[in-house]
Amino acid sequence: MPNDQSNDLFDRLASGAAAEWSRYVDHAFVRGMGDGSLPEPAFRHYLAQDYLFLTHFARAYALAVYKGRNLADMRASLNGLKAILDVEMDLHVSLCAGWGIAEDELERTPESKATMAYTRYVLETGLRGDLLDLHVALSPCVIGYAEIGKRLAATPGALDDANPYRVWIAEYAGEAYQSVAASARATLNRLAADSLTPARFPRLLTIFAQASRLEADFWDMGLTLTD
Ligand SMILES: Cc1ncc(CO)c(N)n1
């Protein structure tokens, strides 16, 4: 449960932007994956866009490596970059293959406006801001999917063979992804200890709320098959 008295920066952000956060993690698309009622075309549309999303997200992590002030910062961001390129991307490509979507088809998919808006927002926030701004912009993605995966996995029936979305849920509820999210939380707290001031918090909250909104819009794009 988000808690605004917490020492955990992520908890403070999620509770400060509670409306945007819950629209994202409690979205109809998410509930439809949990009970298996999500229409297959919506999931396929989402999966192809998510491939493009992850490509840009890897670039945003590469920017975070560049923006590191020391080796500890650079290694933390490099681990995030490796988690996308070596773990999540492989899982994604094999998940797509299971749905009969080949990698060259993913490469040829035109990027939707929701994908462009979200990924370019994160990249632009990172370009103009510092490392803390960038990691705050990245955090709804990593920590949000871990939370969604964990919640869905705890829903009765979600991991049953009858649910076509069980592989997706198991991926994000799994230990590997949960530990990537735990590191992202720790990175935020380490950066906050160094450079968070009371005056800065509202600006970080704006970034966090905006990124959470764009995540919810990404689910909308999948659900409504929008270009
Ligand atoms: C849109 C979106 N947000 C977050 C994640 C988690 O990395 C993802 N794969 N896609």
From TrEMBL:
<dbReference type="GO" id="GO:0005829">
    <property type="term" value="C:cytosol"/>
</dbReference>
<dbReference type="InterPro" id="IPR027574">
    <property type="entry name" value="Thiaminase_II"/>
</dbReference>
<dbReference type="InterPro" id="IPR016084">
    <property type="entry name" value="Haem_Oase-like_multi-hlx"/>
</dbReference>
<dbReference type="Pfam" id="PF03070">
    <property type="entry name" value="TENA_THI-4"/>
</dbReference>
<comment type="similarity">
    <text>Belongs to the TenA family.</text>
</comment>
<dbReference type="GO" id="GO:0009228">
    <property type="term" value="P:thiamine biosynthetic process"/>
</dbReference>
<protein>
    <recommendedName>
        <fullName>Aminopyrimidine aminohydrolase</fullName>
        <ecNumber>3.5.99.2</ecNumber>
    </recommendedName>
</protein>
<comment type="pathway">
    <text>Cofactor biosynthesis; thiamine diphosphate biosynthesis.</text>
</comment>
<comment type="function">
    <text>Catalyzes an amino-pyrimidine hydrolysis reaction at the C5' of the pyrimidine moiety of thiamine compounds, a reaction that is part of a thiamine salvage pathway.</text>
</comment>
<dbReference type="GO" id="GO:0009229">
    <property type="term" value="P:thiamine diphosphate biosynthetic process"/>
</dbReference>
<keyword id="KW-0378">Hydrolase</keyword>
<dbReference type="GO" id="GO:0050334">
    <property type="term" value="F:thiaminase activity"/>
</dbReference>
<feature type="domain" description="Thiaminase-2/PQQC">
    <location>
        <begin position="21"/>
        <end position="223"/>
    </location>
</feature>
<dbReference type="InterPro" id="IPR050967">
    <property type="entry name" value="Thiamine_Salvage_TenA"/>
</dbReference>
<keyword id="KW-0784">Thiamine biosynthesis</keyword>
<dbReference type="InterPro" id="IPR004305">
    <property type="entry name" value="Thiaminase-2/PQQC"/>
</dbReference>
